[in-house]
Amino acid sequence: MTESAQSTERKAIIGGAALNGFLEIPPAAQGIVVFAHGSGSSRFSKRNNEVAAFLRDARLGTYLFDLLTSDEEKVDAVTREHRFNIPLLSARLQGVIDWLVQRPEAAGHRIGLFGSSTGAAAALIAAAEMPGQVAAVVSRGGRVDLAGEALERVRSPTLLVVGGADFDVLQLNKAARERLQSVSELTVVDRATHLFEEPGALQEVATLTRNWFIKYLQPNHSGVSGRDH
Q1: How far is Cα 211 from Cα 223, in angstroms, rounded to an integer?
Q2: Which residues contact 122 (CB under 8 A, 6 or more apart)?
Q3: What's domain 6-216's superfamily in CATH?
Q4: Which residues are within 8 A (CB) of 78 and not within 5 positions of it... i.e. 6 or more apart?
C-alpha cells in the first residue's frame, strides 16, 4: 500500500443495502478504480488487494467493497444464489459509482472498473449503462459472457486478461470480445490458471491493469474512438 494514501473505511448505502468498503486515494491520484469482486469474494480478497496496492503505488485510488451485505453473504455461502445474480451485482455497482462520484475526496477523478469472475460481467453492464461515468474497464479471468446484450453497448476501453490455461474462460472471452464495439484488448497470461496463482502471474495482471488505467483514466483521454481489434 502507498504509505501516504488516505485509507478510510466507507460504507455505501445502496437501495437500503449497507455495503462495506475501503477507499484509499493517494495524493495527486490520477483516477479511482472500483473493484467488483467475483463469486463468493469480498473486499478482503487477497488477489484483488494485491492488485489494488500495486495500483496505489502508481497513484491510482482504489475502492474495494462488498457487493453483498453480511446477511446476503451468509445465505450465499450456502445457496450460492446471489453470486450469479448479475443484475443485482451490477445494480449495486452502479449505485456505488453514483455514491462515489459525490464524495468530496473523489471529486474530479475519472472512474475505472476492475472486475473478477462474475464481477467482470457486472462491471461491463455498469459501463454500458453509465458511459459518461465509467472511463475504462479491466476484467481478470472474467465471466464477461454473462454481461449478455450489454456487451454491444459498452463504450469504455476494455482490457480482458485471461490465463492461458483457463481454457473455457479464454474461449468465452474471445467470443465476448468479438461483440464489444469499444476499444478493447484480450491479453493471455501464459500458463496461468483461473486464479492466477502461478509465480509471477498476478504481478503480470497488476502491471497490465496499471498500464491500462494510467492510459485511459487521464483527464484528457476520451477512449471512445471505436474498436481496436
Answers
A1: 14
A2: 36, 67, 86, 89, 90, 92, 93, 115
A3: Alpha/Beta hydrolase fold, catalytic domain (3.40.50.1820)
A4: none
What does the alpha-carbon distance between residue 7 and residue 22 come to, in Å, rounded to a whole number?
7
Q: Where are the domains of the chain?
A: 6-216
Instruction: List pLDDT tens digits, range 29-68.
Output: 999 999 998 766 678 788 889 999 999 999 999 999 988 8
Query: How many whole angstroms separate alpha carbon 137 and alpha carbon 123?
Result: 7
81 touches 3 (CB < 8 A): no
Quote the pTM value: 0.90
The DSSP letter of residue 3 is: T
For the chain, give percent helix, strand, coil, nearest 5.
40, 20, 40
Cα–Cα distance, 67 to 18 (Å, whole number): 9
CA dihedral sign of residues 18, 42, 52, 185: negative
The three three-digit cell numbers of residue 6, written as one number: 488516505
